[in-house]
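User: What would this chain look like folded?
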Amino acid sequence: MKRKHGTSQYRLNHAKSQAQAMLENIQRIEMMWQMSEQGVVDEEIADRYIRSMIDETTSSWKYLEGYISYREDMTK
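Assistant: Here's the prediction, encoded as structure tokens.
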């Protein structure tokens, strides 16, 4: 595997996939919020779902941040 600039193509591809998953979570949060706003979904159910998605997104962000970080051992 080719390593350069403190990362590799594998790590970049993985980070891109992780970021896409986070975007999908945010879209799910928005959809649930809209459904709750329109009265289609009970507010308590929407609140639990949204909290869960926010927690998952926060966890994914921490993972992504660690994964995409510059690695001194991958500079050459």
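The mean pLDDT is 85. If you want, I can go into more detail on any region.
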